[in-house]
Amino acid sequence: MFESNQHIQPHPVNLNQKASMIDSQWSPRVVAQMNDYQFKVVRIEGEFIWHAHPETDEAFLVLEGTLRIDLPQRSVHVAPGELFVVPRGVQHRTAAEGEAKLLMIEPCGVLNTGHEGGERKAPNDLWI
């Protein structure tokens, strides 16, 4: 039998429940980690800032609502249950007309605003 010193989570993570626990929009919270990647839930409404992540791709899985991802040449609409990956270095802006709940998958330490900073820069590595 294989033995590991790794921590095994006590139960499955309910993503919608975790997203509902977040007090404010645009404040991603970590719900799980796999190797060097974090799974973050976030509630959004309105438009975010244009930014890029030069070091990594960024994946968005929609839990509720509809996500719009603006890219330099087009916009992509992502429905509940759908996944979209923004490639490394591509300028993008996320938006939702009504509230949307998302799961983001990205390496540990990635800032939500890339290198742009600003008032929507959220604290990193906060768990819920």
Task: Give a quick precis of the structure.
By secondary structure, the chain is mainly beta. It has one helix spanning 15-20; strands at 29-34, 37-47, 58-64, 67-70, 75-78, 83-86, 93-107.
Please describe the topology of this protein.
Layout: H1 15-20, E1 29-34, E2 37-47, E3 58-64, E4 67-70, E5 75-78, E6 83-86, E7 93-107
Antiparallel strand pairs: 1-2, 2-7, 3-6, 3-7, 4-5, 4-7
Give the tags.
mainly beta; seven-stranded antiparallel beta sheet; 1 helix; 40% strand; globular; RmlC-like_jellyroll; Cupin_2
Kindly describe this structure.
The chain is mainly β. The protein has one helix at 15-20; strands at 29-34, 37-47, 58-64, 67-70, 75-78, 83-86, 93-107. The chain contains one helix and seven strands. Strand 4 (67-70) and strand 5 (75-78) form a beta hairpin. The relative contact order is 0.27. The model has no long low-confidence stretch (mean pLDDT 90).
